[in-house]
Structure to design on (1197 residues):
């Protein structure tokens, strides 16, 4: 039988390869790895779609997240893009903000860049646990609002939030600095062991602080003017 | 190198047309123009500024410059944005990120430029890179040029802002399916630069891009109409449609877009975003126009010839065509059939739409009201069949919560009344229906309500005494609805539809109209 | 004679008709040249030995345009053309259309056929085809399909012929031209109203068709047609008379026409016009959309589309019937003829785009829902042609987006078909599925 495609036998593609093609391919590869890593974390850590913020679960999740993120090569922009992928349900079936925050924290901590800028103003969800164990020499700047446990367990790094955070900001942080330009919620600095929290707006309530400093609108409110936990202003 | 005359455009135009697979746009023109804007596109007519070409002719071959401009202009037509719907979508997505209207428009325009130029560079042989090397660049243009350097792999002598360019370079400009997300990413990065640019423009006087603005001039009124229709049907909510429509309202007026789509069609009537929304949605539900019916006359007439065969009767033999012979192969006999003629077409009756806008119904100006949409579909169906429509919109009518429009074929008037919302109690003032029933010969009646009518008894009594075709569409099951149903069950001219999913209202309404129209044949 | 020379002659015929006989506005533009579609397609039909359906309101030159083209292209004087036309009315018989027994011989018990002019001359014009009963429509179209005309065990075979059939819009006196018959027409065009100013000119020069009369040639031809000579002999003698008529046209009217040999040469040139890859690929894409069905394998008029089918956005969802194999033949031959006429060296996608709506308009049966959304569109063409133009434009837009991808898919298809172990190229369009079907691969 005659080949019905005979007319095209000599056709050669005329499209030019431009750097955009390889940039996009590489980006897709990296995003795919990051997403797979997140799914792996969910699979192992989240049973029946429930995950509670407890000391053990956080550490366990972070250990696994660390292991996963070390395996691939990515940039700060990939982290931001991953945050937006979490928000849409196209590629990622579930957003469970706890593990997501841990995972993103691991990504930030192991990124090559020292300074990571995340523009998250347009995210519909607020990520919890961002900044977990941010190490010395790392700075994460976030534009937008975050959820609970922002800067939890900070280990010397600097976390700048141009927006609001919710409750338990700086919980368990050991050292480093958290700067929030707007307001934060209750239980601020719960079990905080060092470092500084600077809040440009209002602090709704303080937690049980062990050590460290908290500033509200550049005024030191802890340790001077120490207040009991959950006192409202 | 001097001014490029029209002849030069004529010389390169056939080659460029072929390159872009023969777009349906007229041959570009050259006009004096000004030195800062190279290219304009209005109603698909590309105009190149000879002043700009003169200026750039000192730096690059003039013909190549013209080719680059044409490649850019045509790529907007053939790739991005390609149609008005895409333009609206891109703007709407950019506005989610950049709340300011003008900046969102600028961001959308820049995105379209990048997509169109990159498409051209990848798929066609084009001197666009050379062109961008030589044009004067503002701050934002510099960033775009450095982006091009990165993604095209060419040196455009642009200074790079590494952080910005790295983020912009990751966006898949050539993947149409991802444009919604891509423009958001683009806008996020470019937002700050646009704020700076706006500030600089304020100080230095307005600067326009050399590639011209992305206004609505490039679209015909039909394309704008189609674009709005597609946009409304895209599952954007009423709120988003309104916002986007309002953002383009001035431009729409400038190009002469009227309420019903074009110049002269409702021109002069202020543009109402809600009305346009429901009009465009209703246009996607349509039923065919009634055809002229054929009727049999009832008696047989000779129609055509067929060969006579042995054994067939003789009485229908046509002696003349048979040449006086009775023999197979020669003799022809008449085929008789019942004649048909056009019957009397029953005109499509007029229609009265009675729509409930009490507090329990959705406010059509805040959220999509399927009741109003269903009513809109019904009115369009009757209007398309050259009938007239009257609308009685009621809430607590005796207390003044009602709006009425007499039989009319003016779509805008009908929609204005349909979209009114009173949000009060629910009672009909039946006296107001009498003039409507008298004004027209047995109009069809559509009632769309949740049946929680306080004077339901009177309504039932009233409807029992008329023999018009009545279709009642009521939302949800309740005691009032049951009462109405029980009272009207035996009436052959009344049909009820209880709707659990409001989305079904338009289909139910149109299904009934289809039955009515087919019944008339 | 060179290609250019023939082209000049054919263009000369077009210009002569346009300037002197068929006054109308140009309504299509291609490669910067403007043409009147009815006249241009009639010319291409005459050159291609095609079949054209001309629709239009009564009195707008449907029949006369075909008569002019037939007369000038085939060098047949107008009187013979008039005498050979079949008019559509229900009482038409085979004897009036094809031939009748020789009555004198019949009385002696001998069968001999007197062939009609319609059957014998190459230009066949049927006026108001849709007023003929179906059996007679079928008889004419069967004859023109093969060029065979049979009556009483005798047969003549036309080597060269073309058919022009006119039809008014649906009115109470008309039948429908049923789908299998309408599919045999290569193109459908509308003979439009020329506008008031040009219409006034038409009224001013109402004796214009007399310029193509030549009583002497007409008498000679009539004698030949009614003679008892064999059909082949008649053709030879007719050609001589036609050549003489051609000389008359050249001397009196200054229009150079073409003879039998010239027409053969032109057809040869047209047939050698190659389609470029874009024209080729675009045609395949269009055919795919008009014949594909994801669920049922192919489009069939008795099967309905599934709700929510993945291919809802394509033409296959809007049409009821499947494209016939006559469609690509019509597209190809008319595109080649158009490209030849314009003087291009090959057929490109613009030629195909220009021609395809006219080859498609009468062949597609659209779904009621689709018609309802388009009925009130602003347009400049009759509804069928408007829908076809819209459809072609839509498919072309899709082609514009993915032309390189499609051509690559077809190139890879070639290699896979020849046995290379390659993965066929994937794509989200019926044509990619059809490529895999051709390669015997599962989708």
């Amino acid at each position: 039988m005659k080949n019905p495609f005979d007319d095209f036998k000599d056709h050669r593609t005329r499209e030019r390869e431009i750097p955009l093609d390889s940039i996009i391919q590489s980006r897709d590869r990296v995003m795919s790895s990051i997403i797979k890593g997140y799914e792996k974390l969910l699979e192992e850590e989240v049973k029946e779609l429930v995950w509670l913020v407890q000391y053990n679960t956080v550490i366990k999740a972070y250990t696994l997240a660390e292991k996963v993120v070390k395996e691939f090569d990515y940039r700060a922009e990939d982290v931001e893009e991953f945050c937006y992928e979490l928000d849409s349900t196209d590629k990622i079936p579930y957003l469970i903000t706890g593990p997501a925050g841990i995972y993103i924290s691991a990504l930030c901590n192991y990124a090559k860049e020292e300074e990571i800028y995340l523009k998250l103003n347009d995210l519909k969800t607020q990520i919890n646990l961002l900044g977990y164990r941010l190490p010395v020499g790392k700075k994460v700047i976030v534009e937008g609002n975050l959820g609970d446990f922002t800067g939890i367990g900070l280990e010397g790094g600097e976390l700048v939030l141009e927006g609001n955070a919710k409750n338990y900001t700086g919980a368990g942080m050991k050292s480093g600095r958290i700067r929030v330009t707007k307001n934060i919620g209750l239980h601020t600095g719960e079990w905080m062991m060092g470092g500084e929290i600077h809040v440009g707006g209002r602090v709704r309530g303080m937690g049980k602080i062990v050590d460290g400093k908290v500033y509200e609108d550049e005024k030191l409110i802890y340790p001077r003017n120490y207040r009991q936990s959950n006192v409202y202003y | 190198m001097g001014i490029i005359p029209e002849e030069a455009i004529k010389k390169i135009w056939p080659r460029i047309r072929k390159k872009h697979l023969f777009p349906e746009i007229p041959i570009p023109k050259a006009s004096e123009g000004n030195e800062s804007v190279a290219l304009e596109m209005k109603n698909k007519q590309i105009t190149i500024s000879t002043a700009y070409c003169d200026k750039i002719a000192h730096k690059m071959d003039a013909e190549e410059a013209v080719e680059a401009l044409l490649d850019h202009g045509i790529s907007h037509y053939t790739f991005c944005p390609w149609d008005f719907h895409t333009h609206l979508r891109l703007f709407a997505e950019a506005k989610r990120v950049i709340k300011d209207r003008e900046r969102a428009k600028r961001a959308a325009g820049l995105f379209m430029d990048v997509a169109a130029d990159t498409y051209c560079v990848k798929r066609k042989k084009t001197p666009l890179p050379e062109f961008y090397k030589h044009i004067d660049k503002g701050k934002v243009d510099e960033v775009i040029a450095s982006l091009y350097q990165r993604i095209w792999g060419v040196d455009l002598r642009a200074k790079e802002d590494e952080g910005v360019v790295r983020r912009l370079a990751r966006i898949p400009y050539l993947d149409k399916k991802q444009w919604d997300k891509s423009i958001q990413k683009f806008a996020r990065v470019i937002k700050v630069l646009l704020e700076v640019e706006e500030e600089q423009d304020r100080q230095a006087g307005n600067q326009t891009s050399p590639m011209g603005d992305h206004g609505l001039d490039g679209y015909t009124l039909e394309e704008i109409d189609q674009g709005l229709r597609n946009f409304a049907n895209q599952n954007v909510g009423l709120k988003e449609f309104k916002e986007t429509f309002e953002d383009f309202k001035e431009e729409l007026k400038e190009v002469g877009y009227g309420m019903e789509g074009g110049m002269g069609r409702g021109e002069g009537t202020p543009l109402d975003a809600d009305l346009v929304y429901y009009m465009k949605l209703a246009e996607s539900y349509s039923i065919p126009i009634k055809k002229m019916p054929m009727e049999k006359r009832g008696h047989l007439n000779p129609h055509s010839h067929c060969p006579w065969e042995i054994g067939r009767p003789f009485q229908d033999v046509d002696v003349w065509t048979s040449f006086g012979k009775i023999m197979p192969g020669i003799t022809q006999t008449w085929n008789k059939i019942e004649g048909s003629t056009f019957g009397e077409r029953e005109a499509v009756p007029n229609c009265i739409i009675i729509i409930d806008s009490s507090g329990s119904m959705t406010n059509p100006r805040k959220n999509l009201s399927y009741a109003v949409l269903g009513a809109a579909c019904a009115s369009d169906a009757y209007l398309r069949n050259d009938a007239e429509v009257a609308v009685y919109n009621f809430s607590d009518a005796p207390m003044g919560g009602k709006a009425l429009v007499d039989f009319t074929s003016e779509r805008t008037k009908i929609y204005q009344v349909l979209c009114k919302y009173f949000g009060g109690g629910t009672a009909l003032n039946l006296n107001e229906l009498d003039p409507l029933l008298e004004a027209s010969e047995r109009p069809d009646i559509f009632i769309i309500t949740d049946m929680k009518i306080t004077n339901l008894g009177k309504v039932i009594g009233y409807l029992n005494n008329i023999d018009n075709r009545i279709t009642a569409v009521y939302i949800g099951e309740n005691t009032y609805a049951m009462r109405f149903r029980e009272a009207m069950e035996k009436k052959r001219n009344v049909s009820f539809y209880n709707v659990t999913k409001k989305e079904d209202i338009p289909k139910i309404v149109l299904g009934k109209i289809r039955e009515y129209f087919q019944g008339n044949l | 004679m060179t290609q250019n020379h023939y082209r000049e002659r054919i263009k000369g015929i077009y210009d002569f008709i346009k300037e002197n006989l068929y006054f109308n506005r140009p309504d299509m533009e291609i490669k910067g040249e403007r043409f009147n579609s009815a006249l241009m397609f009639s010319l291409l039909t005459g050159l291609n030995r095609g079949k054209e359906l001309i629709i239009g309101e009564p009195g707008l030159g449907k029949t006369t345009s075909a008569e002019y083209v037939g007369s000038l292209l085939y060098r047949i004087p107008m009187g013979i053309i008039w005498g050979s036309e079949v008019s559509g009315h229900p009482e038409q018989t085979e004897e009036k259309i094809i031939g009748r027994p020789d009555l004198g011989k019949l009385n002696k018990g001998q069968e001999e056929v007197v062939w009609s002019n319609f059957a014998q001359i190459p230009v066949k014009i049927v006026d108001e085809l849709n007023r003929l009963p179906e059996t007679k429509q079928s008889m004419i179209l069967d004859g023109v399909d093969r060029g065979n005309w049979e009556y009483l065990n005798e047969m003549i075979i036309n080597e060269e012929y073309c058919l022009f059939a006119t039809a008014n819009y649906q009115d109470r006196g008309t039948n429908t031209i049923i789908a299998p018959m309408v599919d045999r027409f290569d193109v459908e065009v509308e003979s439009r109203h020329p506008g008031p100013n040009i219409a006034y000119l038409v009224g001013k020069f109402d004796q214009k068709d007399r310029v193509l009369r030549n009583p002497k040639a007409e008498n000679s031809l009539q004698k030949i047609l009614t003679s008892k000579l064999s059909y082949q002999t008649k053709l030879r003698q007719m050609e001589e008379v036609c050549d003489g008529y051609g000389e008359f046209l050249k001397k009196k009217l200054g229009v150079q026409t073409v003879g039998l040999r010239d027409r053969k040469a032109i057809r040869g040139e047209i047939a050698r016009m190659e389609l470029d890859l874009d024209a080729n690929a675009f045609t395949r894409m269009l055919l795919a959309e008009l014949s594909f069905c994801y669920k049922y394998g192919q489009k069939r008029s008795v099967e309905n589309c599934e709700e929510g089918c993945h291919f809802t956005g394509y033409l296959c969802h809007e049409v009821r019937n499947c494209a016939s194999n006559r469609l690509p033949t019509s597209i190809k031959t008319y595109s080649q003829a158009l490209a030849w006429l314009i003087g291009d060296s090959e057929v490109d996608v613009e030629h195909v785009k220009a021609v395809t709506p006219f080859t498609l308009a009468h062949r597609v049966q659209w779904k009621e829902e689709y018609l309802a959304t388009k009925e009130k569109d602003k347009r400049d063409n009759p509804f069928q042609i408007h829908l076809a133009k819209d459809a072609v434009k839509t498919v072309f837009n899709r082609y514009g987006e993915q032309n390189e991808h499609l051509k690559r898919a077809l190139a890879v298809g070639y290699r896979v078909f020849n046995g290379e172990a390659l993965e066929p190229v994937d794509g989200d369009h019926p044509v990619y599925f059809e490529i895999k079907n051709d390669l015997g691969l599962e989708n």
Notes: Chain A has four helices and seven strands.
